[in-house]
Design brief:
The protein has about 50 residues and is of the alpha+beta class. The chain has one domain. The protein is about 40% helix and about 15% strand. It is built from two helices and two strands, in the order H-E-H-E. Strand 1, helix 2 and strand 2 form a beta-alpha-beta unit. The longest helix has 13 residues. It is globular and about 25 Å long. The protein starts with a helix and ends with a strand.
Length: about 50
């Protein structure tokens, strides 16, 4: 979980403010991943 949260923090910094950060809906909580972001509303789960 820590690695994915760190990655999403970096992705949030280098991408534009209109970028949606998506993660697969695996066993990791999307809410928990988003909790470390400045804009958690930009994080989404993607099920395929």
């Amino acid at each position: 979980m820590d690695i994915k949260q760190d990655l999403f923090k970096i992705m949030e910094q280098i991408n534009g403010e209109n970028t949606i950060l998506a993660t697969n809906t695996s066993s990791l909580s999307v809410t928990k991943i988003a909790s470390g972001l400045r804009h958690p509303e930009r994080c989404a789960g993607l099920h395929f």
